[in-house]
Amino acid sequence: MKKKVLQNMEHVEDWEKIFDIMNDGMYITNAEGLTLKVNQAYEQITGLDSKNLIGKYMSDIVKQGYLSTSITQQVIKTQKSITIEQQIINGKKVALRGIPIFEEGTIKMVVSFVRDISVINKMQQELNHSKVIIAQYQKQLNDLQKNSFIAESPEFKKVIFIAQKVANVDSTVLILGESGTGKEIVAKEIHEKSNRCKNLFLKINCGAIPEQLLESELFGYEGGAFTGAKKNGHIGIFEMANKGTVFLDEIGDMPLHLQVKLLRVLQEKTITRIGSTKSISIDTRVIAATNQNIAEMVQKKEFRQDLYYRLNVVSIEIPPLRKRKTDIIPLIDHFVKKFNQKYQLQKRLSPNLLKYFVEYDWPGNVRELENIIERILVLSEECEICYSPSLLPWTSETEQQQKENKTIFSTEQYENISLKEAYEKVECMLLQRASEKYKTTYEIAEALQISQPSVSRKLKKYNITKKC
């Protein structure tokens, strides 16, 4: 056999120096699959020693487990060039391209070129990660240019103080508040004031993504883990935001089976991709937010109690706009300047119009305020915009409500009844209205200036159903 190897080596002796300076691995066999030459790049890529390969047939090398398959045998059989993926004995995957070398119409040799797939995959992942970082930094730069905290009220100043205080540590934060109060802005403030500010801040809305996709977005998946999966797999945001921050918005909408995996992230600082059994260590801070009553969801077993305690290390509750009225005028001034600059306008709101803004309860909070300011500036013709019933969407409703109240309190319907009956009638009406307007019995109690137990008792008395 050695004699045969030496005879075949005559075909490659002149090229030996070239082989060993190439970056791609090269593997040369004769027409029978006998290994003739292996260059240094092949040894480095595969981790295999040429001493265990040269002088051996490919069929024997595969049987011994050094390689998962033989491209040489396939090239000899098909008489064509072939590209395949191959697994080495050490678990590394490589890409192979086998090319037949003919002499007088007969295969004389087979030359295989080898590349490390793991390096290519890593480069692709790094490229994708770099693109995300660039996009994220651009977005953060735009946000810094567009957004700033408008805080005149002591209630919101307290929120900012807590956010900046907790930024210096890595504690998990749970931000509570109605929709549109600015939970994401507070989360970004925490990230930007932390030592993670140079790394990624990634947001995912747990209620906006279908349950089947949410898991893969959070934790990633291996190639071929399910139908439609990318060949090279996918990195989840926990892994992508390593050393940075993940903001889980609408955490109350996260399915229970994913809450278990999130609990593991918080407790063990590891994730497991879909389709894999390998645990990956991460160092990612978690900030969660919701407009739901999580404590109540825990009691109803709609949210895991252990996860709630893990998330609720530091809790920040953002008050609604109706409870921080002193912020309304500064916010209006900020949005007027913003949209004047954006649309090249020079408009302002009159004092009589501002009065209606301050008196309104703003169920949509700051987001609703911003949207209405933009609509008014864009649609109005005047430079100074004055109040008009058609200008504000809620004023016509308010006027109609006042008419209804006048009807409700007309003296005709209270004739020939006792004072007690009249009192109960009015009390029932007020409770009914309050139960329609407010979400909880605590808010009803605050609005009517009575105790919460009294509200519960009176709702039961008048058979008024309150869905908390």
Topology (SSEs and partners):
Layout (H helix, E strand, L loop, with lengths): L1 H8 L6 H4 L5 E6 L4 E4 L1 H7 L11 H6 L7 H8 L3 E6 L5 E11 L2 E11 H30 L7 H13 L6 E4 L6 H10 L8 E5 L5 H9 L17 H4 L4 E5 L6 H13 L1 E3 L6 E3 L3 E6 L3 H6 L5 H7 L2 E4 L10 H16 L4 E2 L1 H9 L5 H15 L4 E2 L9 H14 L10 H19 L3 H8 L3 H10 L7
Parallel strand pairs: 6-11, 6-12, 7-8, 8-11, 13-14
Antiparallel strand pairs: 1-2, 1-5, 3-4, 4-5, 9-10
Helix pairs in contact: 7-8, 11-13, 14-16, 18-19, 19-20
CATH class of the largest domain: Alpha Beta
Q: Count the strands? A: 14
Given as residue ranges, the uncertain stretches (5+ residues, pLDDT < 50) are 1-6
CATH superfamily of the largest domain: P-loop containing nucleotide triphosphate hydrolases
CATH 2nd-level architecture of the largest domain: 3-Layer(aba) Sandwich
Proportion of β residues?
Answer: 15-25%
> What radius of gyration results from the CA coordinates?
35 Å
| Termini separation | 86 Å
Outline the biggest β-sheet.
Answer: 5 strands, antiparallel
* Shape label: elongated
Average of pLDDT: 83
Number of helices: 20
Can you tell me the CATH topology of the largest domain? Answer: Rossmann fold
Strand order of the largest sheet: 2-1-5-4-3
**What count of structural domains?**
4
Helix content: 40-55%
Find the structural class using helix and strand composition.
alpha/beta
